[in-house]
Design goal:
Layout lengths: L9 H12 L6 H10 L3 H17 L13 H33 L2 E2 L6 E4 L5 E4 L4 E5 L4 E8 L1 E5 L6 E6 L2 E5 L3 E6 L4 E7 L1 E6 L2 E6 L2 E5 L8 E2 L2 H4 L6 E8 H10 L4 E4 L8 E7 L3 H12 L3 E4 L3 E4 L1
Parallel strand pairs: 5-7, 16-19
Antiparallel strand pairs: 1-4, 2-3, 3-6, 4-5, 6-9, 7-8, 8-11, 9-10, 10-13, 11-12, 13-14, 15-17, 18-19
Helix pairs in contact: 1-3
């Protein structure tokens, strides 16, 4: 069940309707449900704003070129075309994670935590802004972590289970594990049993109480994990013990829908410890910044710049 109740977000629901209505399988019942949803003025306004934004991103229809075009007008057109492409690229970069989540079978909103029980009895605990796809039909149960973090309580039913994370594949031999996708790497923590990370010709076996990080090119050595704090996020806390400052800031910024931009890369490697409230990320960020003598600045609601 969700850790806390959220008020309906017209902008978030508008994005979900926008995605659903453009899918081939959208039927008349769903369109009628959309029409009923639009009866609420706030909902209708949010969808209208989204449609306007989408139309602004569409290229203008081509027009016949005049026989003679001045050099000045040609240069202006090139600059306008470049500005348009930059705008489209920026919008795609900012909203691509959200579109990925909405296109996934299971997903959570920013700041939301959710527990889902699958048909085979396995329980998935999704962290904020996380997304997964699930396929339980074959002899090997397939999970795909698209974004965020998941705590998995596996129900053993005689079939194997694998978790795809980027270019890596995790073979599950235990009952409790946690998989996370961070900005620069992915991570596996085994709380009970064993799991093997496989990527290319490299592999690592991870046992109870151990963790390993990996990226698109390599798997790091296996390390001991702090099991008392590894899954503290499920209760709304981030219990950091000698954790890199950049990773703490990234988690807190992510809980309010922002990406982290560290102006000084050396600062990100500082080690910090503390207990941070994930349900009040802004207050936690302000407290941490004051303690570390940092300056925080939000940019366009999507970035958190740390100086």
């Amino acid at each position: 069940m969700p850790a806390k109740q959220f008020q309906p977000d017209p902008q978030q629901e508008a994005l979900e309707w926008f995605s659903l209505l453009r899918q081939p399988g959208c039927d008349e019942a769903q369109r009628q449900a959309f029409a009923a949803w639009c009866q609420v003025p706030h909902n209708a306004q949010a969808y209208a704003e989204l449609e306007t934004f989408w139309q602004q991103l569409q290229p203008a229809p081509a027009r016949p070129r005049p026989q003679q075009i001045s050099v000045r007008r040609s240069q202006v057109s090139k600059w306008l075309a470049l500005a348009f492409l930059l705008g489209v690229g920026a919008a795609a970069y900012l909203y691509w994670p959200l579109m990925q989540r909405l296109a996934s079978e299971l997903h959570t909103a920013v700041g939301e935590r959710r527990s889902t029980r699958l048909a085979d009895g396995t329980t998935l605990n999704l962290d904020s802004a996380s997304a997964m796809n699930v396929d339980l039909r074959g002899r090997t149960r397939q999970l795909h972590l698209v974004q965020g973090q998941v705590y998995i309580e596996v129900m053993l039913d005689g079939r194997a289970m694998e978790v795809d994370v980027g270019n890596a594949r995790i073979q599950v031999f235990g009952t409790r594990l946690q998989v996370a996708r961070h900005a620069g790497h992915d991570e596996l923590v085994v709380l009970s049993g064993k799991a093997m990370v496989i990527q290319g010709g490299e592999q690592r076996m991870v046992s109870t109480g151990e963790r390993v990080t990996f990226d698109d090119t390599r798997i790091a050595p296996v390390q001991k994990a702090d099991l008392q704090t590894a899954d503290s996020w499920r209760t709304g806390r981030l219990e950091a013990t000698d954790m890199p400052l950049g990773q703490v800031l990234e988690r807190l910024a992510g809980y309010q829908g922002q990406r982290l931009w560290m102006m000084d890369a050396q600062v990100a490697h500082r080690r910090v410890s503390g207990d941070f409230d994930l349900d009040r990320p802004a207050a936690s960020l302000e407290s941490l910044a004051a303690a570390q003598h940092l300056q925080l600045q939000g940019v366009l609601g999507h970035w958190l710049v740390v100086r």
